[in-house]
Backbone:
């Protein structure tokens, strides 16, 4: 039996609109209620049974069916509840849910049309839905409606159906378009998401790329089908591409540089649609340019289809608006010895099929708009997906002043206990409070649920939270955000999935940037100061806390030469792989020297410059070592670097004897900014 459950694009378009409409993402929450989080990794109709409700802590003996609500992507969903009274062992809740896609990601683009693949998230396939209950009236429902066929009109000949292919789902490095590099010819990219950035199919050059859409049982005499897609043009300069369906030319596209292109048109003839696979060809073979790369993100075709449902056990389809009743006869549907039901999501209806001669029959009332429908066999665990567990939670109301502060620590519960009962995150909070701050700790998982609709690892959780802080908290004090925990770029953990477990607190996009977590798409200046300890374990936090305490103690030491002179000492380290580099780096560092030594700071600069062409110059000077051992306040490096070294290398930190006299290090070099 072939089952093919495909998403109708227009059915869920309101979800994406709603994602963009909410200011912070938490407007749907009632802080006086308990919620139950449901993780969703597959599109489909879901059922929550009595047993799962009970096991998850829902008070089923006192809550009645008419009190339940389900929220997803920031809005209430229509649900079917088998009883409005107290639940019995056979009662259940049903709702349609979507896995995570690129809708939330679109808020990270300054121009949403730049997004290469709105159908695929950069970060996570798993979405979250939340069950709750209350006594309010007007909860959205899918209501049982009598399927009375008496006096029905002539049967409908066709319905709308969407066939869709989504590419890039393996999320390998080869499937990612980075967008344009900031300096042509150099691998330097902006941390903002740019035009054409996202996952897609492997790019092709000066050739044809044909994709097959599975299009069963088209109704050729119906209205013309509608094609929708996104592909990208990749590379500096002009681009040319032809698009054909069923071997017949439809459109050509001219673009420049790195561009996301969004074909959306009515096809020339339904005769191009095959009963089976319909070929769609993207071709740059006729391009007049010597290099012309393109890549396909997704494509879908909304076409008129017969009511032959291909032996599937669940099918999503739609019907045009109608002032009159609509009569449907569905055949070749796999009811699997059950009596299937038809959900009308648009009008909130649920009809039980009347089966005659292996044909499902339904009479639908009028509808003012195009209605989105799903027919499904009553087979829990196969065509109806089962919710196996839910996580109980109550949300923290960050508009309540008692939950606010001026030093906001964001961390992961992994760090809240070292195994011996020590919570160094809490101890760091206490340290900041003792230093005059009003510190709070925000659990990153709380921020995921409240500010990114439960989508874990999504950086919009921190950005939306920072916007709430900036816009609604008291303005009498300067705010600071401090991230405690390692962050890993999606580009890296998608290609090396084992590393995702260490992505405790996310950074922004690729290349990663913590500053952009608290900025806006229009202005890269952070609205709240932000920093991070990239801790991998609790001991990292313990060590940092001890050094921070020592640093503060040093600031409060007596104003004597022996206690404070080291704070005026600054090291300048200049690298460079050749004489030209070395000359430039020395020039900039020497231009900083008189500023540091001027009266505003009154410092003393000690300069060390690389003079060889060796990849790394090892600093073995006893003089330099003695400076660090006796204390310097700042080490300013300018040169080439990698993730774990300068091209002007220092000794291992553990070999220095500068206890309590720790320098700030400014690194003007590549990659070392990846401190998350």
Residues:
């Amino acid at each position: 039996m072939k089952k093919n459950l495909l998403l109708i694009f227009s059915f869920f378009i309101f979800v994406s609109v709603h994602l963009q409409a909410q200011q912070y993402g938490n407007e749907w929450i009632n802080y006086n209620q308990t919620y139950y989080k449901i993780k969703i990794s597959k599109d489909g109709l879901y059922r929550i049974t009595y047993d799962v409700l009970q096991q998850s802590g829902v008070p089923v003996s006192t809550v009645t069916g008419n009190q339940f609500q389900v929220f997803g992507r920031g809005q209430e969903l229509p649900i079917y509840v088998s009883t409005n009274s107290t639940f019995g062992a056979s009662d259940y809740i049903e709702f349609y849910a979507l896995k995570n896609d690129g809708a939330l990601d679109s808020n990270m683009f300054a121009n949403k049309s730049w997004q290469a693949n709105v159908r695929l998230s950069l970060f996570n396939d798993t979405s979250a839905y939340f069950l709750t209950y209350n006594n309010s009236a007007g909860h959205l429902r899918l209501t049982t409606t009598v399927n009375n066929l008496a006096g029905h009109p002539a049967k409908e000949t066709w319905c709308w159906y969407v066939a869709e292919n989504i590419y890039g789902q393996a999320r390998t490095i080869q499937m990612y378009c980075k967008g344009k590099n900031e300096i042509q010819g150099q691998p330097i990219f902006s941390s903002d998401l740019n035009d054409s950035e996202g996952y897609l199919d492997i790019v092709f050059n000066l050739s044809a790329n044909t994709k097959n859409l599975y299009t069963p049982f088209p109704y050729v005499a119906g209205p013309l089908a509608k094609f929708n897609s996104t592909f990208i043009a990749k590379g500096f300069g002009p681009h040319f591409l032809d698009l054909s369906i069923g071997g017949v030319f439809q459109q050509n596209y001219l673009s420049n540089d790195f561009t996301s292109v969004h074909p959306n048109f009515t096809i020339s003839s339904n005769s191009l649609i095959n009963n089976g696979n319909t070929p769609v060809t993207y071709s740059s073979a006729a391009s007049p340019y010597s290099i012309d790369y393109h890549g396909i993100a997704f494509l879908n075709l909304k076409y008129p289809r017969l009511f032959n449902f291909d032996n599937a056990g669940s099918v999503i389809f739609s019907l045009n608006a109608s002032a009159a009743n609509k009569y449907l006869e569905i055949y070749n549907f796999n009811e699997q010895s059950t009596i299937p039901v038809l959900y009308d999501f648009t009008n909130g209806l649920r009809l039980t099929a009347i089966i005659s001669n292996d044909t499902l029959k339904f009479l639908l009332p009028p509808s003012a708009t195009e209605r989105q429908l799903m027919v499904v066999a009553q087979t829990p665990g196969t065509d109806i997906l089962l919710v196996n567990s839910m996580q109980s939670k109550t949300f923290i109301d960050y508009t309540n002043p008692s939950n606010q502060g001026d030093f906001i620590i964001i961390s992961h519960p992994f760090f809240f206990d070292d195994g011996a009962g020590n919570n160094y995150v809490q101890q760091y909070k206490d340290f900041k409070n003792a230093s005059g701050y009003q510190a709070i700790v925000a659990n990153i998982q709380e921020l995921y649920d409240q500010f990114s609709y439960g989508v874990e690892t999504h950086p919009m959780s921190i950005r939306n939270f920072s916007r709430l802080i900036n816009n609604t908290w008291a303005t009498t004090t300067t705010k600071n955000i401090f991230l405690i925990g390692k962050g890993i770029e999606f580009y890296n953990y998608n290609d090396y999935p084992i590393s995702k477990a260490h992505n405790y607190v996310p950074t922004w996009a690729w290349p990663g940037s913590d500053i952009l977590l608290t900025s806006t798409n229009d202005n890269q200046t952070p609205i709240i100061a932000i920093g991070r300890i990239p801790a991998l374990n609790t001991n990292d936090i313990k060590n940092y806390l001890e050094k921070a305490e020592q640093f503060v103690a040093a600031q409060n030491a007596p104003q004597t030469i022996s206690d404070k002179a080291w704070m005026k000492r600054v090291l300048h380290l200049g690298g460079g792989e050749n004489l030209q580099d070395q000359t430039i780096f020395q020039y900039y560092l020497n231009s900083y020297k008189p500023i540091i030594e001027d009266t505003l700071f009154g410092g003393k600069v000690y300069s060390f410059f690389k003079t060889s062409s060796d990849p790394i110059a090892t600093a073995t000077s006893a003089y330099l070592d003695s400076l660090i051992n006796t204390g310097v306040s700042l080490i300013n490096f300018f040169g080439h670097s990698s993730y774990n070294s300068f091209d002007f290398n220092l000794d291992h930190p553990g070999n220095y004897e500068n206890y309590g006299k720790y320098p700030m290090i400014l690194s003007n070099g590549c990659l070392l900014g990846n401190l998350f």
